[in-house]
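Internal tracking record. Fields below are filled automatically when a chain is submitted to the structure queue. Please do not edit lines marked as system-generated. If the sequence contains nonstandard residues, flag them in the REMARKS field before resubmitting.
Queue: standard
Priority: normal
Entity type: single polypeptide chain
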Amino acid sequence: MKHLSRIYTLLIFIFLYAPIAVMILISFNSSASTYVFSGFSLQWYKMLFHDADSMAALRNTLILAVLSSVIATIIGTLAAIGLNSYRNKYLKSGIMLITNIPMMNPDIVTGVSMMLMFAFVGGLVGSRSSLGFGTLLIAHITFNIPYVILSVQPKIRQMDKHLSEAAMDLGCTPFQTFLKVELPSIMPGVLSGLITAFTLSLDDFVISYFTIGSSFETLPIHIYTMTKKTVRPDMFALSTIIFIAVFVLLVLSNILKVDDDEKKRRAIKKQLKKAEKTAKKAVQ
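SYSTEM-GENERATED OUTPUT FOLLOWS
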């Protein structure tokens, strides 16, 4: 059974990462062939950085991803804190159900519905061009918020409620308590939600396709327009760079999580040692 499980795990990793490995290999190919490796070369990376359209699309994508992830993280963190303060469990469950719908809803349904909403609002205000960077930013913030809430809520549940009460007893205002006590305690969840929102925004195509308009172009849309003719090898280089960047972000996220768990273990050990010392003194 052990050998079968190892083979099964190996096959899963091959199916998941073999296409990415091939893409990375082809991005260093000296020729434009996608099946014959003629030799190692960085020419496609050089061509990529000299392509004004691709660089503009990459810049737009990064601006959109940073803005949407930061705004979604702020709104999602505050929403998670607000939901945690509800005492009515039925109300809390109902709100969480509504919040989780965007994650379960197909992207194409979300994209079409948001496009119709933006077109309707644009018609009401008399706007000729109802789609653009603003609508795209709102769409990305909307589908990122549930993921931030999902990342922050477990940290809020793990937080010691007596810490905020003690801070207020010592003279802190609610806002100071949030900044100095609550926020540092849930910061790993906040950072995890921020990284998740950034990667989702960086990668999104379907919702962006329906809400982007013609005045703004992101990298996934730019690559899609190229597939109608042919995908140039410099896009393989760009995809490789994006993969490495996302991989680094995920590694950093896991490191933060491990560090947070390690701090909690050390804190628990200290508390146990203090309890043992107190018990020994009591016995003596």
